[in-house]
Amino acid sequence: MVRILMVHGFGVNAAIFEAQTAPVRALLPFHWEYHFLQGPLVCGPAPGMGEVYPGQTYSCWFHVPSLIEFQSVHGFLEEVIEEEGPFDVAWGFSAGAMIIGSLILRYAHETPHLPQPFRSAIFMNCSMPWSATEDLGKDVTPLVIKRQYVPCTLAEADRVLALEYEKNPTKEDMLQDERNTDWEDGDLIPPMMRHAYQDIHAQDVKKGVERKYNDLRAHRMFPEVDKVRVPVPSGHVLGERDPQKELGMTMCDMCDPRVMLTYKHGFGHEIPARSPKDLKKIVEVIEKTVFRSDFV
Hints:
6-stranded parallel beta sheet; 14% strand
Protein backbone atom coordinates (compact mmCIF):
# COMPACT_ATOMS: atom_id res chain seq x y z
CA MET A 1 0.00 0.00 0.00
CA VAL A 2 1.15 3.52 -0.84
CA ARG A 3 0.19 6.12 1.80
CA ILE A 4 -0.05 9.70 0.58
CA LEU A 5 -0.25 12.90 2.62
CA MET A 6 -2.44 15.43 0.78
CA VAL A 7 -1.75 19.11 1.52
CA HIS A 8 -4.16 21.71 0.14
CA GLY A 9 -3.47 25.28 -0.94
CA PHE A 10 -4.61 28.56 0.60
CA GLY A 11 -8.26 29.48 0.93
CA VAL A 12 -9.71 25.97 0.54
CA ASN A 13 -9.80 23.00 2.93
CA ALA A 14 -9.21 19.26 3.06
CA ALA A 15 -12.68 18.39 1.72
CA ILE A 16 -12.33 20.80 -1.21
CA PHE A 17 -8.89 19.42 -2.05
CA GLU A 18 -10.36 15.93 -1.94
CA ALA A 19 -12.94 17.01 -4.52
CA GLN A 20 -10.37 18.85 -6.64
CA THR A 21 -8.09 15.82 -6.88
CA ALA A 22 -10.86 13.23 -7.33
CA PRO A 23 -10.55 13.10 -11.16
CA VAL A 24 -6.82 12.40 -10.86
CA ARG A 25 -7.09 9.91 -8.01
CA ALA A 26 -9.78 7.97 -9.89
CA LEU A 27 -7.13 7.03 -12.46
CA LEU A 28 -4.46 6.03 -9.93
CA PRO A 29 -4.08 2.56 -8.35
CA PHE A 30 -7.14 1.76 -6.25
CA HIS A 31 -5.12 0.52 -3.27
CA TRP A 32 -3.36 3.85 -2.68
CA GLU A 33 -4.42 5.49 0.57
CA TYR A 34 -4.87 9.26 0.93
CA HIS A 35 -4.72 11.30 4.14
CA PHE A 36 -6.13 14.82 3.58
CA LEU A 37 -4.57 17.33 5.94
CA GLN A 38 -6.53 20.37 7.13
CA GLY A 39 -4.71 23.69 7.45
CA PRO A 40 -4.54 24.88 11.08
CA LEU A 41 -5.55 28.51 10.40
CA VAL A 42 -8.80 30.02 9.17
CA CYS A 43 -8.87 32.51 6.27
CA GLY A 44 -11.15 33.72 3.50
CA PRO A 45 -11.79 31.65 0.37
CA ALA A 46 -9.40 31.66 -2.56
CA PRO A 47 -10.81 33.55 -5.55
CA GLY A 48 -13.74 31.63 -6.98
CA MET A 49 -13.84 29.06 -4.21
CA GLY A 50 -16.54 30.87 -2.26
CA GLU A 51 -18.88 30.53 -5.23
CA VAL A 52 -17.99 26.92 -6.09
CA TYR A 53 -17.82 25.73 -2.48
CA PRO A 54 -19.99 28.17 -0.48
CA GLY A 55 -20.59 28.17 3.24
CA GLN A 56 -17.43 26.34 4.25
CA THR A 57 -14.52 27.04 6.58
CA TYR A 58 -11.50 27.92 4.45
CA SER A 59 -8.02 27.21 5.75
CA CYS A 60 -4.38 28.20 5.35
CA TRP A 61 -0.98 27.31 6.82
CA PHE A 62 0.51 30.65 7.89
CA HIS A 63 -0.33 34.34 8.06
CA VAL A 64 3.07 35.76 7.11
CA PRO A 65 5.88 33.65 5.55
CA SER A 66 8.24 34.39 8.43
CA LEU A 67 10.86 32.13 10.01
CA ILE A 68 8.74 31.86 13.16
CA GLU A 69 5.56 30.92 11.34
CA PHE A 70 7.35 28.40 9.13
CA GLN A 71 8.85 26.77 12.20
CA SER A 72 5.26 26.30 13.34
CA VAL A 73 4.25 24.97 9.92
CA HIS A 74 7.09 22.44 9.94
CA GLY A 75 6.25 21.43 13.50
CA PHE A 76 2.63 20.91 12.52
CA LEU A 77 3.63 18.65 9.62
CA GLU A 78 6.10 16.72 11.73
CA GLU A 79 3.48 16.10 14.39
CA VAL A 80 1.08 14.75 11.76
CA ILE A 81 3.80 12.51 10.33
CA GLU A 82 4.62 11.15 13.78
CA GLU A 83 1.00 10.55 14.77
CA GLU A 84 -0.56 9.53 11.45
CA GLY A 85 2.44 8.36 9.38
CA PRO A 86 4.60 7.14 7.99
CA PHE A 87 3.72 8.46 4.54
CA ASP A 88 5.37 7.32 1.34
CA VAL A 89 4.39 10.39 -0.67
CA ALA A 90 3.52 14.03 -0.03
CA TRP A 91 1.20 15.58 -2.62
CA GLY A 92 0.54 19.29 -2.42
CA PHE A 93 -1.09 22.03 -4.44
CA SER A 94 0.17 25.64 -4.55
CA ALA A 95 1.12 26.71 -1.00
CA GLY A 96 0.60 23.14 0.17
CA ALA A 97 3.22 21.94 -2.31
CA MET A 98 5.52 24.76 -1.27
CA ILE A 99 5.50 23.87 2.44
CA ILE A 100 6.22 20.24 1.52
CA GLY A 101 9.25 21.42 -0.44
CA SER A 102 10.34 23.68 2.41
CA LEU A 103 10.24 20.77 4.88
CA ILE A 104 12.11 18.37 2.60
CA LEU A 105 14.81 20.94 1.85
CA ARG A 106 15.32 21.61 5.56
CA TYR A 107 15.76 17.89 6.23
CA ALA A 108 18.16 17.57 3.28
CA HIS A 109 20.20 20.44 4.70
CA GLU A 110 20.19 19.55 8.40
CA THR A 111 20.21 15.74 8.34
CA PRO A 112 21.29 14.60 4.87
CA HIS A 113 22.42 11.22 6.26
CA LEU A 114 18.95 10.40 7.65
CA PRO A 115 15.81 9.31 5.78
CA GLN A 116 13.57 12.03 4.40
CA PRO A 117 10.05 12.45 5.83
CA PHE A 118 8.69 11.28 2.44
CA ARG A 119 10.04 8.93 -0.21
CA SER A 120 8.69 11.08 -3.06
CA ALA A 121 6.78 14.32 -3.58
CA ILE A 122 4.19 15.67 -6.01
CA PHE A 123 4.26 19.45 -6.54
CA MET A 124 1.20 20.90 -8.30
CA ASN A 125 1.27 24.59 -9.25
CA CYS A 126 3.94 25.06 -6.61
CA SER A 127 5.48 28.29 -5.39
CA MET A 128 9.06 29.00 -4.29
CA PRO A 129 9.80 27.74 -0.78
CA TRP A 130 10.11 29.88 2.31
CA SER A 131 12.49 28.78 5.05
CA ALA A 132 12.03 27.87 8.71
CA THR A 133 15.72 28.37 9.47
CA GLU A 134 18.23 31.19 9.07
CA ASP A 135 20.65 28.69 7.53
CA LEU A 136 18.61 28.53 4.33
CA GLY A 137 17.30 31.19 2.01
CA LYS A 138 17.93 34.87 1.46
CA ASP A 139 16.82 37.41 4.04
CA VAL A 140 13.92 39.27 2.41
CA THR A 141 12.47 40.76 5.61
CA PRO A 142 12.19 44.34 4.25
CA LEU A 143 9.90 43.11 1.46
CA VAL A 144 7.79 41.02 3.82
CA ILE A 145 7.40 43.95 6.22
CA LYS A 146 6.10 46.07 3.32
CA ARG A 147 4.08 43.08 2.04
CA GLN A 148 5.83 43.37 -1.30
CA TYR A 149 5.99 40.49 -3.76
CA VAL A 150 9.37 38.74 -3.64
CA PRO A 151 10.75 38.26 -7.18
CA CYS A 152 11.53 34.71 -8.30
CA THR A 153 14.95 35.66 -9.68
CA LEU A 154 17.84 36.44 -7.36
CA ALA A 155 19.01 39.43 -9.39
CA GLU A 156 15.60 41.11 -9.26
CA ALA A 157 15.21 40.29 -5.56
CA ASP A 158 18.58 41.92 -4.86
CA ARG A 159 17.52 44.99 -6.82
CA VAL A 160 14.25 45.60 -4.98
CA LEU A 161 15.86 44.80 -1.62
CA ALA A 162 18.53 47.44 -2.27
CA LEU A 163 15.80 49.99 -2.92
CA GLU A 164 14.04 49.12 0.33
CA TYR A 165 17.28 49.28 2.36
CA GLU A 166 18.03 52.66 0.81
CA LYS A 167 14.59 53.94 1.78
CA ASN A 168 14.52 52.34 5.25
CA PRO A 169 18.08 51.60 6.48
CA THR A 170 17.12 50.56 10.03
CA LYS A 171 14.66 48.09 11.56
CA GLU A 172 12.82 50.97 13.19
CA ASP A 173 12.43 52.72 9.83
CA MET A 174 11.07 49.52 8.29
CA LEU A 175 8.52 48.99 11.05
CA GLN A 176 7.37 52.61 10.94
CA ASP A 177 6.94 52.34 7.18
CA GLU A 178 4.99 49.12 7.69
CA ARG A 179 2.58 50.83 10.05
CA ASN A 180 1.94 53.51 7.44
CA THR A 181 1.30 51.02 4.63
CA ASP A 182 -2.21 50.12 3.60
CA TRP A 183 -2.51 46.33 3.46
CA GLU A 184 -4.32 46.50 0.13
CA ASP A 185 -1.40 48.41 -1.40
CA GLY A 186 1.07 45.58 -0.77
CA ASP A 187 1.61 42.79 -3.26
CA LEU A 188 3.51 40.17 -1.26
CA ILE A 189 0.55 37.95 -1.98
CA PRO A 190 -0.32 37.27 -5.64
CA PRO A 191 -3.64 38.95 -6.58
CA MET A 192 -5.43 35.61 -6.86
CA MET A 193 -4.82 34.94 -3.15
CA ARG A 194 -5.08 38.44 -1.70
CA HIS A 195 -8.67 38.15 -0.49
CA ALA A 196 -7.75 35.36 1.91
CA TYR A 197 -4.85 37.32 3.37
CA GLN A 198 -6.86 40.53 3.68
CA ASP A 199 -9.32 38.70 5.89
CA ILE A 200 -6.46 37.50 8.09
CA HIS A 201 -4.94 40.98 8.34
CA ALA A 202 -8.32 42.46 9.26
CA GLN A 203 -8.57 39.95 12.10
CA ASP A 204 -5.10 40.97 13.33
CA VAL A 205 -5.96 44.67 13.22
CA LYS A 206 -9.18 44.02 15.10
CA LYS A 207 -7.23 42.21 17.81
CA GLY A 208 -4.73 45.05 18.06
CA VAL A 209 -1.81 42.90 16.88
CA GLU A 210 1.37 44.81 16.00
CA ARG A 211 4.02 42.44 14.75
CA LYS A 212 7.59 43.23 15.74
CA TYR A 213 10.64 42.91 13.51
CA ASN A 214 11.61 39.42 14.68
CA ASP A 215 8.07 38.20 14.08
CA LEU A 216 8.40 39.30 10.45
CA ARG A 217 11.90 38.05 9.68
CA ALA A 218 11.67 35.92 6.55
CA HIS A 219 14.02 33.94 4.32
CA ARG A 220 13.06 32.82 0.84
CA MET A 221 15.03 30.10 -0.88
CA PHE A 222 16.70 30.61 -4.23
CA PRO A 223 18.53 27.91 -6.21
CA GLU A 224 21.51 30.28 -6.60
CA VAL A 225 21.71 30.84 -2.82
CA ASP A 226 20.88 27.38 -1.51
CA LYS A 227 22.85 24.50 -2.96
CA VAL A 228 20.70 21.88 -1.21
CA ARG A 229 18.19 20.10 -3.46
CA VAL A 230 15.11 17.95 -2.92
CA PRO A 231 16.79 14.53 -3.03
CA VAL A 232 13.70 12.33 -3.38
CA PRO A 233 11.87 11.69 -6.66
CA SER A 234 9.64 14.64 -7.46
CA GLY A 235 6.82 15.13 -9.92
CA HIS A 236 5.89 18.68 -10.98
CA VAL A 237 2.65 19.78 -12.64
CA LEU A 238 2.68 23.34 -13.97
CA GLY A 239 0.04 25.49 -15.67
CA GLU A 240 1.07 27.43 -18.75
CA ARG A 241 -1.34 30.23 -17.80
CA ASP A 242 -0.68 30.08 -14.07
CA PRO A 243 0.41 33.49 -12.69
CA GLN A 244 2.77 31.53 -10.42
CA LYS A 245 4.31 29.48 -13.22
CA GLU A 246 7.76 31.06 -12.87
CA LEU A 247 7.75 30.30 -9.13
CA GLY A 248 6.92 26.67 -9.89
CA MET A 249 9.74 26.46 -12.41
CA THR A 250 12.13 27.82 -9.78
CA MET A 251 10.97 25.06 -7.43
CA CYS A 252 11.93 22.60 -10.16
CA ASP A 253 15.44 24.08 -10.06
CA MET A 254 15.61 23.19 -6.36
CA CYS A 255 15.02 19.48 -7.02
CA ASP A 256 17.46 16.79 -8.10
CA PRO A 257 17.04 16.70 -11.91
CA ARG A 258 18.06 13.05 -12.01
CA VAL A 259 14.85 12.00 -10.24
CA MET A 260 12.48 14.75 -11.38
CA LEU A 261 9.58 14.64 -13.83
CA THR A 262 7.55 17.61 -15.07
CA TYR A 263 4.37 18.17 -17.04
CA LYS A 264 2.96 21.51 -18.16
CA HIS A 265 -0.71 21.77 -19.11
CA GLY A 266 -2.34 24.66 -20.90
CA PHE A 267 -4.52 25.86 -18.04
CA GLY A 268 -3.95 28.18 -15.07
CA HIS A 269 -3.70 27.77 -11.31
CA GLU A 270 -5.87 24.67 -11.25
CA ILE A 271 -6.09 20.94 -11.82
CA PRO A 272 -7.40 20.45 -15.39
CA ALA A 273 -10.18 18.09 -14.33
CA ARG A 274 -12.10 18.30 -17.61
CA SER A 275 -9.17 17.53 -19.91
CA PRO A 276 -8.72 13.76 -20.34
CA LYS A 277 -5.42 14.27 -22.16
CA ASP A 278 -3.96 16.33 -19.35
CA LEU A 279 -5.31 14.02 -16.65
CA LYS A 280 -3.63 11.06 -18.35
CA LYS A 281 -0.27 12.88 -18.44
CA ILE A 282 -0.59 14.00 -14.82
CA VAL A 283 -1.32 10.43 -13.73
CA GLU A 284 1.76 9.24 -15.62
CA VAL A 285 3.94 11.77 -13.80
CA ILE A 286 2.53 10.78 -10.41
CA GLU A 287 2.82 7.03 -10.98
CA LYS A 288 6.35 7.21 -12.35
CA THR A 289 7.44 9.45 -9.49
CA VAL A 290 5.97 7.17 -6.82
CA PHE A 291 7.29 3.99 -8.40
CA ARG A 292 10.71 5.55 -8.89
CA SER A 293 11.01 5.99 -5.12
CA ASP A 294 11.32 2.20 -4.81
CA PHE A 295 14.65 2.33 -6.62
CA VAL A 296 16.29 5.43 -5.08
